[in-house]
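re: ur question from earlier - yeah i can do the single chain one, its not a big deal. heres the input i used so u can compare w yours
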Amino acid sequence: MDIWSKQKRSEVMSRIRGKNTKPEMILRSQLFKRGFRFRVNKKDLPGKPDIVLPKYQTAIFVHGCFWHYHKDCREGRIPSTNTKFWKEKLERNIAKDEKNVEALKLKGWNVVVVWECEIENKLEETLIDLTKRIKS
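and the output i got, formated as tokens:
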């Protein structure tokens, strides 16, 4: 059972941003401090990666744990209301993500996915790992 009416839920969900989210902004700030220069939401690349480092031919996607169904995370779960809709929606998101990653790899791009919970809970470890993956 949802705690809000259908109208209120719709209003809340419509305010969720697709770009320039808090995790993206944190990661971009940290990458910039470490000397990386990048572009954001490159429209000419499959999936419009959140962060693109042309010098390193690397595309970074910052995935929200709920919206991209992060199974290793507390937030990556199917809501208990309207379960059929959410299951189908999240499965479509996963399929789209996989298609975009594959298309980028076929074009020769190094693709890195960073989860929202990694940025929130273990930023330093994530940045060390990300730096290695960018430069490899």
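The mean pLDDT is 92. not sure if urs matches, ping me
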